[in-house]
Amino acid sequence: MKAFPAALAVSLLLASCAGSEAVSAKTVSFFCPNGTILRATFDTDNDRMWLRVNDRDYDLPRLISASGARYGDERTVFWNKGREAMLERQDGPSYIGCLAES
């Protein structure tokens, strides 16, 4: 009988954790002029983003930005402000003028 309250407590804890993760992450698709789609998932709780571009994935930390949001590392920089985004990469083409879906 004592196992039931413990199992209930663990279930409630796991349910609350799952709910908080869903709130902190938001996915946005940015459509570039050449037809490329940048799929960005922003995790504001952890100051990170995950970016998918043409079957390639990037895990980027948030960087200091004077305006908008900027994420990157030594080879890749993603920046967005409002609906607009751009991606600069050393290992592939760059994309500018990409717009979020409305």
From TrEMBL:
Signal sequence bounds: none
Cross-referenced InterPro entries: MliC, MliC_sf
Gene3D superfamilies: 2.40.128.200
Residue ranges occupied by any C-type lysozyme inhibitor domain in the UniProt entry: 32-91
Pfam families the UniProt entry points to: MliC (PF09864)
Keyword terms: Lipoprotein, Membrane, Palmitate, Signal
Name of the protein: C-type lysozyme inhibitor domain-containing protein
Organism whose genome encodes this protein: metagenome
